[in-house]
């Protein structure tokens, strides 16, 4: 059996990500808008508040609506 000498481990420190406030607010606003649109189509889009006429959108997301606990009948 051959013996090996342990190699020296170097300790690297992580550098923190510095995100400017304007960029953080842009990401926050974009994420909020997308989340509100998704919430509308899954939770609210039907009946008197429908943006699209007919039941196409409702039928498209019908199973997702029930899976997430939104009643629709």
From TrEMBL:
<dbReference type="InterPro" id="IPR012667">
    <property type="entry name" value="CbtB_put"/>
</dbReference>
<protein>
    <submittedName>
        <fullName>CbtB-domain containing protein</fullName>
    </submittedName>
</protein>
<keyword id="KW-0812">Transmembrane</keyword>
<dbReference type="Pfam" id="PF09489">
    <property type="entry name" value="CbtB"/>
</dbReference>
<keyword id="KW-1133">Transmembrane helix</keyword>
<feature type="transmembrane region" description="Helical">
    <location>
        <begin position="24"/>
        <end position="42"/>
    </location>
</feature>
<keyword id="KW-0472">Membrane</keyword>
